[in-house]
Amino acid sequence: MGNPKAFLTTPRKEAGYRPIHDRIHDFGEVEQTLNSNDRRLQASRCMDCGVPFCHWACPLGNKPPEWNDALYKGDWKLAYKLLNSTNPFPEFTGRICPALCEKACILNLTEHEPTTNREDEAAITEHAFEEDYVDVVTPVRNGKRVAVIGAGPAGLAAANELNHLGYLVTVYDARENAGGLLRYGIPNFKLNKSIIDRRLALLEKEGIVFKYNQPIDLKALPEGYDAYIVATGTPEARDLTVPGRELRGIYLALDMLAQQNRVLAGMEFKKDELVNAKGKDVLVIGGGDTGSDCIGTAHRQGCKSVTQIEIMPKPVEGPVDPQNPWPNWPRTLKTTSSHEEGCTRRWNINTLEFIGKDGKLTGVKVQEIDWKPNPEGGRPLMVEKGKPEIIKADMVLLAMGFLKPSHPQYASNVFVAGDAASGASLVVRAMASGIKTAANVDKFLSK
User: Fold this and answer.
1) Bond prior to 327 in cis (omega within 30° of 0)
2) Which member of 16, 128, 178, 330 has the greatest number of CB atoms within 10 A?
C-alpha cells in the first residue's frame, strides 16, 4: 500500500448531496463528487488490513484494496483496469449499490468510518470515460449464438460476458429500451439514464444485438440459438388486497416510477393516465428502497405531504446491529436522500382498509401492531396494539416488494439468471448472477 497508515490521520469524507432546496426541483443526480485530490486521499484510507473482508462481502468479488491503492498513487487507468476486471458496469454500482463492501470494511468494525469504496468506484469510472480509458473490445467469434431474454442488469452482465467470450449475443426485451429496473425503476435523481445509454452504445459497438418491444413467451423461445438465458427479473409486484383496493388513487410503485422516467425520456401520456403526486397527500406503503424512491419522486412532482408506513418494526438505530454483527450486513435504520427531503415515517403499522368517496381515495385506515415470538418457530405473530386510525391520503403507492416468478420446465440449454432465479435482490447480485450464468452457458456449449 502507498500509505498504510493514512486511515489514522485522514477521516472519512463523503461527497454528500446537493442542497435540498435545490435538488427537489429537478431530477438531476442528487449526489455530488469530490475533487480528485480529496478522492485520492479517501482512497489512501484503504488500509493494509491483511484479510480484506470487502472481497468476501462483494457479490462480484471486487478488490477495493487494489484499485484504491492505484487511485491513491494517481494511476487512474490502472485503477479502472483492476475495477473493471471484476465489475462489468462500475458506473451503475458506483451510484446505486448499498456498498456491502463498506459494511464489511475493517475500518467499519473499528471506527465506523469505512473506506469510501462506492464513491471511489464511481469516480474511477467517470474518469475512465472522460480520459477514454474504456476500450471497445473486438471479440474473436466462435460461431455460436446465445439469446438473452431481458435487458436488465443480469441480462446485460451475461450478454457482456458471453460476447467477450466470442458468442454472438442477441438481447430481447419487452420494453422500448434496455436497462430493466435501472431504467424503469430507479429514479433519474439516483441514476441518470444517459449513464445507461453510454454503456449500451459501447455494448452495441462490441457486437451485441438488442431487440426491443419484443415480449417473449418463455414456453416458446425464439429459434436459431445454441443457448438461452432467461433474465426477466421479477415483473409481478406484491399487491395489497384489502377493502377499497379498487378506489382511484392507489398505484403500484413502479406505475409511478417507470412512468416518470419515461416522461423524462420524452414520452407523452394523456392527463388521465398520469400518475402524479402534485398537490396530493401521499402515503407510501413499504419501507424499502422502492418506497424511498417514491418519496423522492413525489417531492419532485410537487406533493403536499408524504408519509411512509412499514408493517415491520423500526430497525436498530446506530451503526451496530447485534443480530447481524460485522462483517455481515447490519439491518439498521437507513435514512436516504429522499427521507431527508421531508417524510413522516412510521413502523409497526398494518393497513386495514382504503377509504374513499365517489370512487376516489380519501384516506387509509391503519392500525398499530406489535410482533410476538411464534411458539412454533418461524415468522413472528402479529398482534393488534392500539385503536384503528385514518391517515389522510389521496394517493397511495404500494412499494411492498416483488413476487418470485415461477418458470416452466426448460430444456437443458436454457439458463435462468438474476432476480428471475432468486427473487428480488440487489443490482450488484443480479450482475454477479449474470456473470456466473454466462460461465455456465460457456461450460455447457464448450462440451
Assistant:
1) yes
2) 178
